[in-house]
Amino acid sequence: MRRLPEPARTGRWSVSPAVGAMIAATLPTALAVAALAPALVTALVEPYQILGHIWDGPPAALLGARPGVVDGGGNVLAALLLTIAAGLAATGFSGGRPARAIPVVLPGAAITLLITPISLGMGWPHSTMAALAVFTLAMLGLALTPPPPDAEVARSLRLTRILVFGIGMAAGGAGLAGALATRQLTLFTLGAAVGVGAVAALGGRTQNARILGWLFASVMAQTFVFTTGLVFGLAPAWSAFGVLAVGAILLLVAALLPRLRRPEAMREANTVEWSGYGAALIAAALAYDSPRHIAALLAAWGAVLGMAAVRPYRNPTERRTLFWSAVACEIIAWWLLMALADVVLPEAYTLPFAALALLVGLLELRHRSDLSSWVAYGPALVAAFLPTMVIVMAGNDSPVRQVLLLLGGVATLIFGSNRRQQAPVIIGAVVTALAALRALFSFGPWLVLIPVGLLLLAFGANNENRRRTQERFRAVRGMR
């Protein structure tokens, strides 16, 4: 009798073992969560009562045992057993990769931690510390473990990671609300949050995890500094300096951390840098009603921007933008300080701008040798001479101002002639001529300096042969 051939064996499961185990565990898990729901609601919802009584201590309802949720540890034992079972199953199905089992274990572990103080009759602050611990474990567990690849057949791990994120956010909100009961616990919570964000930012396995870590650490650090000022009774304008310091640290990290210099880390580096700029805006908002503090903040931020501009991989446009932004911050700060000190001398406002603009022009010439002298020196020279020239020509001047203007024009003329720069030569010659003519009609005691100015104008404009006038003008036209 002929035997029928047996069907071929493929050696594969029609359903993934991990998916099958998850499906089989769905009903028991749902029943367990339903049984634990009162304790979970108490742990995640009731702390928000503190929002109406910040730093006034915890409400009496949060201090003692809540009826209906204290069971002597039965709920805790049930949740713990579920967590252990999930951990064993996840370890078995992880294919020798324990990092993949961690997100599977975290939901059960988080629920166990959340309900333990409530089920054992322990109120605040134990419930708040448990919520904060759950937030820390959930967020670091996600940030420090690799995500599953997109091609994985079983999508349970990705769904589990989303669940862990949701549990972590809910626990973090409840923990922060509970921490607002006292000043000390608030400062501890914010400081620990900075540490959690920093660990995720420095050790995250994906760029998205690191970016979220930087953002979270930045926001928590600024909040921590501001809250510290409130605890010690400082005005918001003084706390602004701490917030600005956080922004400066972020810019320094973006410039000095080797990992952020790689081309593939550009998004992360930009996140860190823009977080620093955001801190500067928040600092300015905190001190908006105090011009003196605004001036000090601008002066400090200008120095920080100047350091940030030297980051090695910046393109020329970014570097110029940061340099000019630093100049603008310093100039506005100087103007505010002069106004607050009731200084009415115009040069006190114009000369610092001219000096900083000249510095920027010199730095630009070092990087761009083809740059025109009108672009490099023009703004600085116009800012330095034009206001004083207007005052002198209007007659509202003093002999000292006339002499200083004349000497400044001569010095600029000599500098431009030696460096073969067209802008200093022309601007210096115009200033010297006008200042000399004004002094000629003023009949002041400084008339003796006019021959000196005219002599320098005639013989110091260039280094060419004075007997070849045509060649001299051609040399001026050939300047940059």
TrEMBL record:
Keywords: Membrane, Transmembrane, Transmembrane helix. The keyword Repeat does not apply. The keyword S-adenosyl-L-methionine does not apply. The chain crosses the membrane at residues 21-45, 76-94, 101-122, 128-147, 159-179, 185-204, 211-232, 238-257, 269-288, 294-310, 322-341, 347-365, 374-394, 400-416, 423-440, 446-462. It comes from the Bacteria. This is Uncharacterized protein.
